[in-house]
Amino acid sequence: MISCRVCGNQLEKFMSFGKMPIANRFLLPKQFDSEYFFELAPAFCKSCFTFQIIEQPSPEKMFHNNYAFYSSTSRYMQLHFKEFAYEVINSILMGRDEPFVVEIGSNDGIMLRHFKDKGCRHLGIEPSENVADVARKNGVNSLSKFFDVDLAEQIIEEYGQADVILSANAMCHISDINSVARGISLLLKPKGVLIFEDPYLGDMISKVSYDQIYDEHVFIFSATSVSRIFQQYGLELINAIPQITHGGSMRYILAPIGSHLVSPNVKKIIDKEIEQGLPLPDTYEKFKENCEKSRDTLLELLNRLKDRGKRVVGYGATSKSTTVTNYCKIGPEHIEFISDTTPIKQGRFTPGMHIPVRPYEEFTKNFPEYALLFAWNHAQEIFEKEVKFKYAKGKWISYVPNVDIIE
Ligand code: DWN
Ligand code: SAH
Ligand code: ZN
């Protein structure tokens, strides 16, 4: 029996996705035999309402000097983080004397580069050295270390406390959330603000986007759980703002208790979570059934297309696709290859199911009849770009929120 990472209560898995590899470890054939697997099984803590996976591989297995995800691969996400940065620059930072901004999980500098451009004092914490190197090349100060309470103390010593601590799609990656929350509470100035966003539990449940669950995503947060976690360390949820990014995310704004007014949004969103049934175990039983249905329908569709001799190619070798392909047992017999624009993924094979990953040009050179949209969270950006595929009578297959062929 394992205990909840937040409150220590006993955790029980409500389902299992089976054996899973490291989601972002794209392989060469000589590495197939030594691939690492763990059991991917989610649990919902009945005491503090935090959704988490039972077992997470060690951080060093996932985040290192060969990490395959570069944030700036999506043009839409570049815009999103520019807007995010300017909202901070034009509100919280206004009138502050030489403000200091820290970002946890700053990757290739997709957000911090805007603070750098404004001449703002900043520091990115990014343990994956290869992506941090891109940020450094662009003049973004980056420290390749894992954020925790010890690092927070070192940062305070060297740079002083922070006016703003930012994080996007990184907080939900760190298993020792207590150390992170304590570190943030020390690092933040008394009038400082913490803003972070992550995939949202409410969206994952309603869209059955179970592919948000993989090794890196140890937590899928809700406003209810975030508010409880940080309250223990003297931080209060002062606002929560839904985002459309990554298929449905939530931006959480927190500050030392009593330092800021609390927006009425917080109660509204927490009430909505209760209405949606997020605190109830039944919700997760139903989610499990929905995952199984989604898996069976997608595999049936791909088997049918295979039997009819259709060409199907995957679009976007996402981390999420590792969960989908391994859980549904989708392999090279169903999908010829997955097209991806990330150079270090190309020429390699996907984790677990070993589907080849090829450069984007191979997709456009010879359009398939069907493209399975693994990067469904970027659907708008991709549909806008892929008009030629549509003219060539290509069809998209999506599986979120339903398994569907988009004509
Ligand atoms: O939380 C996380 C998010 C922020 O990013 C990390 N744990 C890892 C990663 O998750 P992901 O791999 O599921 O993210 P994306 O953004 O859905 O990945 C998109 C993939 O598709 C990238 O490999 C780039 C590729 N891509 C492409 O080939 N053509 C993306 C777009 C937009 C395109 O047009
Ligand atoms: N913020 C970016 C990157 C998200 S990917 C975006 O939204 O696109 C998650 C990132 O968190 C990875 O780059 C990973 O190296 C980083 N990360 C993982 N554990 C971390 C930790 N303990 N401290 C800081 N960053 C961490
Ligand atoms: Zn708990």
Structure commentary:
- The chain contains 14 helices and 20 strands.
- The chain is α/β, with parallel strands linked by helices.
- The protein folds into two domains: 219 residues, Rossmann fold, CATH 3.40.50.150; 108 residues, NAD(P)-binding Rossmann-like Domain (Rossmann fold, 3-Layer(aba) Sandwich).
- The strands form five sheets. The protein has a seven-stranded mixed sheet with strand order 9-8-7-10-11-14-13. A six-stranded mixed sheet has the order 17-16-15-18-19-20.
- It binds ligand DWN, S-adenosyl-L-homocysteine and zinc ion (ZN).
Task: Give keywords.
Rossmann fold; binds zinc ion; alpha/beta; six-stranded mixed beta sheet; seven-stranded mixed beta sheet; binds ligand DWN; 2 domains; globular; 20 strands; 14 helices; binds S-adenosyl-L-homocysteine; 407 residues
In short:
The chain has 14 helices and 20 strands. It has 407 residues and is of the alpha/beta class.
Please write out the topology.
Elements: E1 2-3, E2 10-11, E3 19-21, E4 37-39, E5 42-44, E6 51-53, H1 59-62, H2 75-90, E7 100-104, H3 112-117, E8 121-125, H4 129-137, E9 142-143, H5 149-159, E10 162-168, H6 177-187, E11 188-199, H7 201-207, E12 219-220, H8 223-231, E13 235-243, E14 249-256, H9 264-276, H10 281-307, E15 312-315, H11 319-328, E16 338-340, E17 357-359, H12 360-365, E18 370-373, H13 379-385, H14 387-391, E19 395-398, E20 404-406
Parallel strand pairs: 7-8, 7-10, 8-9, 10-11, 15-16, 15-18, 16-17, 18-19
Antiparallel strand pairs: 1-2, 3-4, 5-6, 6-12, 11-14, 13-14, 19-20
Bound molecules: ligand DWN, S-adenosyl-L-homocysteine (SAH) and zinc ion.
Zinc ion binds next to loops.
